[in-house]
Amino acid sequence: MDPPAASQRLPVSVITGYLGSGKTTLLNRLLRHPGMARAAVIINEFGEVGLDHLLVATPQENTILLSNGCLCCTIRGDLVETLARLLAQRDAGGVPAFDRVLVETTGLADPVPILRTLASEALITPHLRPGAVVTMADGVNGLSQLRDCPESVKQAAIADCLLISKGDLAGARAMKALHRSLARINPGAERLEVLRGDVAPERLFGTMLEGGSARGEQVERWLNETAFVKADSTPLHRRRGSTPGHIERIATFAVRRPKAVSGAGLAAWLELLAALRGANLLRVKGLVNVEGKPVAIHAVQSVIHEPVVLDAWPSDDRATRIVFITRDMDREQLEATLPALELEARAPAAGSAFDPVAYAKFVKAASVFRGR
User: What's the pTM value of the predicted model, to 2 decimals?
Assistant: First the structure.
């Protein structure tokens, strides 16, 4: 049986950000919103998160029901087990039905393992799909954290939406500088200033494609190619010859290919990137012309999300468009791998176990990453 369409699976969104950035404040405000009354929330420990909501009941160990109807549970061990337990409790009627899941990370956490779990674990992927990544940035301390803490830079780079807190304390000059640094790291993410976590949920969770029915402006906003073209950057230390800081190691750019590519080529290219340079690819998003059809792709490091075939092109533009956020990786090096997209899914010659032409293209593309 085929798995349900992405739009039928519940989204699991990640709220991340460095220590003291305001994640718990944001979570409290979100849970007061009427549209979040059927959310399930996963945190690390109840004691670490000062939820304002009153405890109404304890349906199961490690799970509480908040006064607005939201479920809240702790991660004790594996995230997969926590999610699977919530799904089983819901199906058995042990907890109220929920329509989305929010996962709050610790301040020092790398969100990528969470995304990998959501994209690949067979126990939960039939029911859940990766949602938006929302990253909080501290208006007062955010600049120093980006400068000194690689975790902070990574959290910003993989975000779909960036929220800047404490603007009332930071001042206009500090906020402008933080906006500039965040745009340097992730030009495609929407940036919003929030006070005490006050933001409408749809501004955060409407940044992902819900499935093949996404059209026009929604697709263009998700890709945001214009922002990457405008911000196209080479890591500063490669131009200056200086020792790179965490921000200076980041490059952002967009590439285009006018011709359609093959499905086999797209699969080979994505696998090549993930296997050989996943650590350097902080974010990849694209709208790819696969044999005439629009296909949305999305990858975070070595985590490749399931490609989505759109029902229609968002505009008359049929070119393949892909945007990148990389770390310690040259644009030219990545562009040299793009011929792998041209691999064709054709039968090998009679008496041959493989297609030598296709294999030669793949080896040439792979050699760029291996430095041969």
Answer: 0.84
